[in-house]
Write a structure and sequence with these properties.
Length: 301
């Protein structure tokens, strides 16, 4: 009986050359199909900060209807600390839109309360939801060592509260905040040493603070502690946010497909937030353009 040749029957050099050629041709798409994943498998995509500069000033019900119509998997909002929380969560539930990221502020300044006293209760009320709590750390200049003890103490406490609710705390690195850059933010995460406390990877803030530095080693080294990701179209050499570091996915020169492949390669399998802060005009128009690009990325794999 004639046997078909197998890969094991070829010299190792030929096998290696073939694998290299496949990578050159396929690029990130090759990563997308590792471990048996279907070629068109896409992470959950949620809209983040899309309501802040919408020229139409849509109400929450109007926002949810728009996002469902456009095909978004969920949404991200500030963490409401008053009666709005239950009312707005009910609205999101009616629309079938999970809230994947909600953010709140924490102070590391020695002369200020660490956070609003309603914060812990709000976190507990999110029990059972796929929500990550993004925490911005403020009150001192970026990286100021005076904030470390307070940050560790506060974040361990919030980590315990999040654990009770089955949630996680993700430090949101943000320009001009105490945790401005991702490397320092990950240093704080390491000092906190809490299983429920990790960090965001925020593309626009990475580009602002790190420029064209290769993000892949950081993602690989800290893969277990990357709890949330936000992306957007971006011009890599820009210094401004609007029409620079934050744009719809169909604009800018930053290679988001390469980033998504690196995230997948590092083991990140959570939702992806589409950062929309500062994008002017009708939100429906730029969200539709971004969704069109997103679908094209995955349908072409």
């Amino acid at each position: 009986m004639h046997r078909q040749p197998t890969i094991a029957s070829f010299p190792a050099s030929i096998v290696a050359l073939t694998a290299w050629a496949f990578w050159i041709v396929s690029g990130p798409a090759a990563i997308a199909q590792q471990d048996g994943a279907p070629a068109d498998a896409a992470p959950k995509l949620y809209a983040f900060c899309m309501e802040m500069h919408d020229a139409k000033k849509r109400t929450l019900p109007e926002q949810t209807a728009m996002l469902r119509e456009l095909g978004f998997d969920g949404v991200g909002y500030p963490l409401w600390l008053d009666d709005q929380l239950q009312r707005n969560l009910a609205e999101l539930d009616r629309a079938g839109l999970p809230v994947y990221l909600m953010y709140a502020a924490v102070s590391v300044a020695p002369d200020q309360p660490a956070y609003d006293p309603r914060l812990e209760s709000a976190i507990r009320r999110l029990r059972g939801r796929p929500t990550t709590i993004g925490v911005t750390l403020r009150g001192l200049p970026p990286g100021d060592s005076r904030g470390m003890d307070a940050a560790v103490r506060t974040l361990r406490r919030l980590g315990d509260v999040a654990a009770e609710a089955g949630l996680r705390i993700s430090l949101y690195h943000h320009v001009n905040d105490w945790t401005e850059g991702l490397p320092f933010t990950l240093e704080v995460v390491g000092r906190v040493e809490h299983p429920q406390v990790g960090a965001n990877f925020n593309l626009c803030h990475w580009l602002k603070t790190e420029g064209d530095r290769d993000y892949r080693p950081v993602l690989r080294e800290h893969a277990a502690k990357i709890f949330a990701v936000t992306i957007n179209g971006a011009q890599t050499n820009a210094s401004v946010w609007t029409d620079g570091l934050i744009q719809p996915l169909d604009r800018g020169d930053f290679d988001n497909r390469k980033l998504l492949a690196a995230l997948r390669d590092s083991g990140y399998d959570g939702p992806i937030g589409l950062m929309c802060y500062g994008i002017a005009g009708d939100a429906r128009e730029h969200l539709a353009r971004s969704m069109g690009v997103w679908r094209q990325w995955f349908s072409s794999r």
